[in-house]
Design brief:
Helix 9 runs parallel beside helix 12, helix 12 runs parallel beside helix 21 and helix 20 packs antiparallel against helix 21. The chain is 61% helix and 1% strand. The chain is mostly helical.
């Protein structure tokens, strides 16, 4: 029977420290005293890796709020141009008035003035918005909009803490990877543009439950996340094909039923009592024209020819289905069964890349999935640099279009370059994830002999269905990750074992 001290030492040695494996993390750590050492050991201080990640994430969120100060103080209320030149735009204060919350209208049930008619967000996001409106104090309309943004920011900060904790706990041996989420510059810049963090936090919690072999809890959280934003439902696709390869049909069925049940619990009351308001999100998504950030916009601007919305919808849908089918074939033919996080990142990235809109806050969907799929600082920072450039590019372009004859900002050609840059950044990250799948020895998560630390019931499972010459079982069982040698990087950049 191992003693408590032995258990503590084992846990300490089993935790992977990025500063000992990743040259970029090691170099960056010099700003705070160098590589992690004795002070980071589990149990040596009250601050665990998960706690440290959560605190850093909250601190970065707060810095993102500070970045919005010019808009909070005046730019939101003095015309469109100022909020773009200061790159501090947010939908939240504008939709407080624009979607009837200032007048006390009930989302989905009360018709809005103007062309929008009803709130165009999924039900759980509408509930989130309404709860924030209940806590917004009275005053002038400007004071109410400021307060509404602050209340929402406080609620989204809670989502940030949940997100950070879930990502840090998903890979038991790699809690410090959560710092990639916490320190992501695009996260701080886009966190309070819209309400996406609600769905992102629920999805991260679902990923944590899957990693703990709790398919029902995973399904319930995926259903709730889908009730807040559409993209989380795509994670059922990777679960399906991975469970197919591993023969885990019962677990997949439980997850799917849990997702359907929780989604219905949230949506059914509105579907029954306010059907017109409920379907607005879906009709708006179909009728929405080509918008910012997509390659479709580049095509229309370069050619000068409009593209019918129906054509874009059809092509986007077919491209999404085709690319997801290709990911499924890759999963069944890969030399080792891919990790769940790898496929989750790929399918969500595909959905965004072919979509007719790629809003700057959509990067929030990908950040936690990218960290779990490819926890490599160099690749992550390359992608983040592209996203930060696009974040600045879209606001400078909007400043240009609203400045009249002054032409202050980024012209159309410059904005097109920014779009291409952030699309290429996402494609680059997709490429290295696909390479890791085809060459599993390059996967930093599997370097220590692990199979799929976030795979739950899939971790260490043998294959029952493969295509081609794929392996029929993992080269090493996942238990090796707990007992085998830990591989670290030496100062010369070569792997060494301790």
């Amino acid at each position: 029977m191992p003693s408590a001290e032995d258990t503590s030492v084992h846990q300490e040695r089993s935790v992977v420290r990025p500063t000992h494996q990743d040259e970029i993390a090691a170099a960056g750590s010099e700003l705070i005293g160098g590589r992690s050492g004795r002070w980071t050991r589990l149990g040596s201080t009250a601050l665990t890796p998960v706690g440290a990640v959560a605190l850093v994430a909250i601190g970065m969120f707060a810095l993102g709020m500070v970045q919005k100060l010019p808009c909070y103080n005046w730019a939101w209320f003095r015309g469109a141009g100022s909020q773009y030149t200061h790159a501090c735009y947010s939908d939240i204060p504008h939709l407080y008035s624009g979607r009837g919350f200032a007048e006390g209208l009930v989302p989905y049930f009360d018709r809005l003035p103007g062309d929008m008619q009803f709130l165009e967000y999924p039900v759980l996001t509408g509930v989130f918005m309404q709860i924030a409106a209940w806590f917004t104090p009275g005053g002038s309309i400007q004071e109410q909009e400021q307060a509404y943004w602050l209340v929402n920011a406080g609620m989204l900060m809670v989502c940030t803490a949940v997100l950070a904790v879930c990502v840090a706990r998903t890979h038991r041996r790699r809690p410090w990877d959560g710092l990639l989420v916490a320190l992501a510059p695009a996260f701080a810049l886009t966190a309070t543009i819209n309400w996406d963090l609600l769905a992102v936090a629920l999805t991260a919690a679902a990923m944590l439950m899957w990693s703990r072999s709790r398919p029902l809890a995973f399904g319930i959280l995926i259903g709730l996340a889908t009730a807040a934003k559409l993209y989380p439902v795509f994670l059922l696709g990777p679960a399906f094909v991975l469970c197919w390869r591993a023969g885990k049909w019962r677990e997949f069925s439980v997850a799917t039923l849990g997702a359907a049940a929780s989604w219905l619990v949230v949506n059914l009351p509105v579907m029954v009592f306010a059907p017109e308001g409920w379907k607005k999100f879906y009709t708006f998504s179909q009728e929405r024209s080509i918008d910012f950030g997509s390659f479709w916009l580049v095509i229309t601007q370069r050619t000068g020819e409009p593209i019918e919305v129906s054509t874009v919808n059809t092509v986007s849908t077919l491209a999404t289905v085709g690319l997801c089918a290709a990911i499924g074939a890759l999963t069944l033919m890969a030399p080792r069964r891919p990790r769940f996080a790898q496929l989750a990142f790929l399918v969500v990235a595909v959905f965004i890349l072919v979509n007719k809109v790629y809003s700057p806050q959509y990067v929030l969907w990908l950040i936690p999935l990218a960290v779990l799929a490819r926890p490599r600082w160099r690749d992550f920072l390359i992608w983040q640099a592209c996203e930060v450039m696009y974040f600045l590019g879209i606001w400078m372009y909007l400043a240009y279009t609203t400045s009249g004859d002054k032409h202050q900002g980024l012209p159309t050609e410059g904005y097109q370059l920014a779009i291409v840059l952030h699309l290429l950044g996402t494609l680059y990250l997709c490429a290295v994830v696909v390479r890791d799948i085809l060459m599993p020895e390059r996967d930093v998560v599997r370097r220590d002999g692990s199979d799929d630390p976030s795979g739950g019931v899939l971790d260490g499972a043998e294959d029952v269905f493969v295509l081609g010459h794929a392996a029929t079982h993992p080269p090493r069982h996942s238990a090796f990750a707990e007992t085998g040698p830990r591989v670290e990087w030496g100062t010369a950049g070569t792997p060494v074992a301790d």
